Amino acid sequence: MDKIIRVRDLSFEYEPGLKTIDHISFDIEQGDYVAILGHNGSGKSTIAKLLIGLLEKSEGSIIINDDELNLDNLYKVRDNIGIVFQNPDNQFIGATVRDDIAFGLENNCVPQEDMGEIINIYASKVGMSDFLDHEPTKLSGGQKQRVAIAGILAMNPKIIILDEATSMLDPMGRREINTIVKELNQKKEVTIISITHDIEEAKNADQVVILNSGKIVAQGKPKDILSNETNLRKYELDIPFALKVALGLQKNGIKTSKTLDMEVLIKELCQLHLKK
Questions:
Q1: Of 50, 153, 177, 246, which sits 20 to 30 A from 147 (CA to CA)?
Q2: Strands 191-195, 33-37: pairing kind
Q3: Which domains does the chain have, with CATH numbers?
Q4: Which residues contact 74 (CB under 8 A, 6 or more apart)?
């Protein structure tokens, strides 16, 4: 599969001599779902800003869809990427929710006669159909995030970056948005980069990257990275709920696997019960 993002020896400094991102390299294949984890201050949100050119790298290279990111082709590269930030207030432009979702479509030269249907589809997907004529600034934090997500989804980018984009949603809303994003990833091969604290979301990714002090300290499949209790604790990350339960059972003499999936754990316990 083609590599849609290639990062080589990337560094960034907010202040001279203090590297927020410290010589990191990684590839992301087209259609991958990548979760980037790390505690506050690890540098993960800085990576998101570097990938869309909001910050200028100190060293290294970023190649997106075969174009190296620089000042000359910044807008061409951005045409391939949609980003949803942790604070949705930074993204609102329209006077109403409808206008805000329409803004990106207008920039992409979507015909006026097609916009209404597209806006309705994505407003419905994020549960905001009843708010299309409301002012975005008067919505709750969770509603604002839904609108920001709808605006990005409607633009149909090749790459979507979610920078803590579900942090203001309740658990049900978070599950709904994660389901939509996963569906886009699986059915339309949209590449997803999720900057997140949510271990339960990360376990559904194709690849997990852990950052600490601006360096990549772990990278691989979720089942390998997120089952390493020692590393997760070392880098101040939570442990997946199913693994917590499994470890608790093991301490009490009940043999289970170190699964990340609660359904798998329940099946194992049922089988153990039937053997008695």
A1: 50
A2: parallel
A3: 3-222 (3.40.50.300)
A4: 53
